[in-house]
Amino acid sequence: MGRDSKVYALAEVSEHNTTKDCWLVIDGKVYDVTKFMEDHPGGDEVLLSSTGKDATDDFEDVGHSSSARAMMDDFYIGEIDTSTIPAKSKYTPPKQPQYNHDKTPEFIIKLLQFLVPLLILGLAFGVRFYTKST
Length: 134
Description:
With about 130 residues, this protein is of the alpha+beta class. The chain is built from five helices and five strands; from the N terminus they run E-H-E-E-E-H-H-H-E-H. The chain has helices at about 10-15, 45-50, 55-60, 65-75, 105-134, and strands at about 5-10, 15-20, 20-25, 30, 75-80. Strands 1-5-4-3-2 form a five-stranded mixed β-sheet. Strand 3 (about 20-25) and strand 4 (about 30) form a beta hairpin.
């Protein structure tokens, strides 16, 4: 990595997203991993899915070995212009509806709406059964 490093824009790096021409951005550095596509233990799909963005998190999540990190020097071609990388948006969970402690009356009403017709139906069958047998 002692060579003069060229600075690339993310748009330029994003154009290299095929198995024949694949560049990745990891830790602010640009790597041409085209020659490594067939040898990558995770397969070329893993590398291709990380093109066109900052792949640092993808790389770190896997937990690469120190020898894998040392191999990266062979594929280094320059630096990324960090101003061209879009800012990460912070995840905000969706709003949850507020729990209403006063739902007990609603539950009782729904329960009664179910049980009262059953009670009337049972009563009707009971009356019919007893009046028919006598």
